[in-house]
Structure formats: C-alpha cells, structure tokens
Amino acid sequence: MNTAVGNGFDAKSGPLARREHILDTAQACFVRNGFRRTTMIDLARESAIGRCNFHRYFGSKEAIVEALARRDRARCAVLVAELGRTASPRAVLTGVLTRTLSGITRETAVLRLDLWAEAKRNAAIAAVVERTEEARAWLGGMFSLLALSPRCQPEALFDTINPLMKGIIVNRAVLLEYDSGATIAFLDALIDAGLRGELPHAPFTAVQLNR
Amino acid sequence: MNTAVGNGFDAKSGPLARREHILDTAQACFVRNGFRRTTMIDLARESAIGRCNFHRYFGSKEAIVEALARRDRARCAVLVAELGRTASPRAVLTGVLTRTLSGITRETAVLRLDLWAEAKRNAAIAAVVERTEEARAWLGGMFSLLALSPRCQPEALFDTINPLMKGIIVNRAVLLEYDSGATIAFLDALIDAGLRGELPHAPFTAVQLNR
C-alpha cells in the first residue's frame, strides 16, 4: 500500500508522520466542504504537499477515507487492549462504547454523516461503510461471552442498540449542545437487560404494521 | 413567498403543480449528487424550466429545502388528522411513527443525512433542521396527554426515543435490505414503558463516565 516513499524525510517528519498529517488535514477538509465537493487538488494544497508527491501517498479520496476508517479501527483495538489489562470484559464493553460514542467530536460525526449519505452514490465508500458495520462481529462476540441467560440473543441485542448508537452520532453532528451521557447510560442499561435475556421483545402486531 | 406567478398555466400544470414538480425534481437531484454539489443551474435544467422563471419559484437551494421540509410537515399533519378520525390518540401516535419511519424511502433518508451534515456548514440549513426538531413539541404533547403514571417524564421519554428514530433513518440510508419493523416495534414498546413511568433510568455512574 502506501509504504515508505524514500524522499529523505527525517524520523520526525518521515513518510509515516506525513501520512498522518495528510489524514488529519483531509478529515478537516472533508468536514469543512463535504466529501463530495472536496477534490484531490484541494487536499494536496491544504496538506502543503506537491500534487505528484501527494499521489504517492493516496491515489484517491476514497483511499483516504479507507485509511481514516482503518486508523479508527486500529485506535479502537488499542483502546480494547488497554482497558482489557485492568477491567473485566463487561467493563471493557462499557468503556469502549462510552469512549467511542461520547468522545466523538462534532467534526468526526459530520464526516460520518457525509460518508453514510455518500455510500448511496459511491461503491468504494459503501465498502468502507460496510466494513465499519463489522462492529457487529465484535459486539456480537462480546454479548455471547457476557450472556447471563440462555434467553440472551446476541444478534437481536446488536440490532436493538445499533440504531441507537447511530442516532447518538447524528445528534452529536446536529445539536450544538449535545450531552450523550444519558443516552449512553440508557444503551448500557439495554445491554444489561439484553444480557439477562430481558430485553422487551417486539410485539408482533407492531412488526406487522411495517409490512 | 412563492405565490401564484400568473404566467398562464392551466389548472393542471399551473404554478402550484409546477412548484410541486420542482420540489420532486430537486429532491431527486439532491439525492443523486448531494446537496452541496447541486447548483441552481442543475435544478433549473432538471426541472426543464428556464433559469429566470425558475428563480420566480425559488431564490436558492436553501429555499427549496425549506419548502420540502414544510411539505413534509404538512403531509404529517394530514396523516395525524386522518388517523385521528378513527383511531385513539395512542394509536395515532403509533401510526404516525410507523408510517413516517417505515415509509421513508432510501432516497429521502439519504437526503436527510446530507442535510444533517450540511447543517454544520450552512446556517439556513441548520435552521431547517432545527425546525424539524419541533417534532419534540408534538411528541412531548402526546406523551403528556397519554401518560399513565405521574412518574412519566415526557421530555426524558422524547430524549430516549429521539436518537433511536434518527438511527432508523441512518440504517434506511445505509443498509440495502433494511427492515425497520423490529426497531419501530421496540420504539413503541419503549413509549409504552415510558408512559407507564417504567423507562429504565440512566445509572448515575454511566452518566459520569461521559464527563
């Protein structure tokens, strides 16, 4: 992929640091102007890197978004490992959800909305968004591990909290003064109920209404 | 405002019909290309209306978005009135939530995401988004009317279901095969619990984690 470029950067401002700099700059640029309207020329200029050199790092806006998503996943993995050294699996789960949801900046949330909308128009972005849906695998595994009752349904529990997590991100983007604390606490309470197999199940009539 | 233009349309293709046509075309155009990238020139061309004439209907993209939102609110008011003729207030509530959430097309959901993201960048769009937050007033009023216990907290109930409703819209936009039925049924069950004053309350420690 985008490995060392060998253009004489020293250790501090080497290709990896420059790659990080591009990612940070691109994220800010996408947030300011929207993903669709931002061009590679804009991104090279904002990063203060010549266009040819810029292309040695990333060949497209989509590749940058993919790298941003990969960086987020890597940071999340580090968080899981760090928390796991001292906390129980249940506390790791709460810690990860709390940090990733309450810690998200308004800017990051806006970019997330942009990419969700863009997924309808752009197959490469749809693929990135689909990979972020892989949280399903991790969370499903945690729910299976932590289940307190045979009635706990990990998949159904994920489907229950998944739109709530997305709604928190929307509110973070849309509302100026948003405190996600109560909703995150509610999410955590839902997980507790789900692990005990006590999640309120969808009444059949209401489901029928949707068909 | 955009009142009759008096340019000799007959009743069927009169200014009102043409205005509706512009709104439908604009919505499709925003969905295809994104709000930010769509220009007034695109919209006039897509509507097959001369640019000068087009400007007599709408002076800006923002005015079109505002009109689309107003049309949605008007349709919702009609739905409330229709349901109210035969259904109880509680059934009206379920009916409105079910129809507006499960009936939303993927295209409309994508546009909603676009506008939520755009609100950060555009004060006029932020004002439109803020007005859609007025659902709070209607829903809060319904919860007060339908409360089954003095422990029911209409505001807190709204804050609980609000991110869930937004998450349903995100999933409609992002997931190709999304059936919102189970989540809408869960939402309805939460409302029941909230009206009985039995909504799980946020544990204090989890709220603290967010600060």
UniProtKB/TrEMBL annotation, chains A, B:
InterPro entries associated with the record: BetI_C, Homeodomain-like_sf, HTH-type_TetR-like_transc_reg, HTH_TetR
DNA-binding region positions on the chain: 39-58
Keyword Ion transport applies: no
Keywords for this protein: DNA-binding, Repressor
Gene3D superfamilies, per database record: Tetracycline Repressor, domain 2 (1.10.357.10)
Pfam families named in the record: TetR_C_6, TetR_N
Domain HTH tetR-type: 16-76
GO molecular function: DNA-binding transcription factor activity; transcription cis-regulatory region binding
Taxonomy, superkingdom: Bacteria
Protein name stated in the entry: TetR/AcrR family transcriptional regulator
Organism: Methylobacterium planeticum
